[in-house]
Amino acid sequence: MLNIEADYLSKKWFVIFSFPEDYKVSNHLYSGLVINILNALNSLKIEEYHFNKDLYGNFYNRNYTIPLTFIAHHG
């Protein structure tokens, strides 16, 4: 699971990765995925539409959840 938060006060992205318990942090797929997602977010300018907005025009952080499925590849 990948959770991304658009933080209104800092105008930055915050990312939380949640990988399966048996997934090895030293795995190159893990590090490559983390690096690529962070690079993509850093190249994306945070805009007003990335945040929640109430009826009074106040902006709030918005969370995005992206499900990631890892499939073992043999061969």
Straight-line distance between termini: 26 Å
Along the chain, the helix and strand elements come as EEHEEE
Main sheet summary: 3 strands, antiparallel
Per DSSP, the total helix count is 1
Number of domains: 1
How would you explain this protein's 3D organization?
The structure is a single chain. The longest helix has 16 residues, at 28-43. By secondary structure, the protein is an alpha+beta fold. The radius of gyration is 15 Å and the shape is elongated. Strand 1 (2-7) and strand 2 form a beta hairpin. The protein has one domain (2-66). The mean pLDDT is 82. It has one helix spanning 28-43; strands spanning 2-7, 12-17, 52-53, 59-60, 62-66.
What's the arrangement of secondary structure elements?
Blueprint: E1 2-7, E2 12-17, H1 28-43, E3 52-53, E4 59-60, E5 62-66
Antiparallel strand pairs: 1-2, 1-5, 3-4
Concise overview:
The protein is an alpha+beta fold.
Observed structural traits:
single chain, about 80 residues, alpha+beta, 3-stranded antiparallel beta sheet, two-stranded antiparallel sheet, 1 helix, 5 strands, elongated
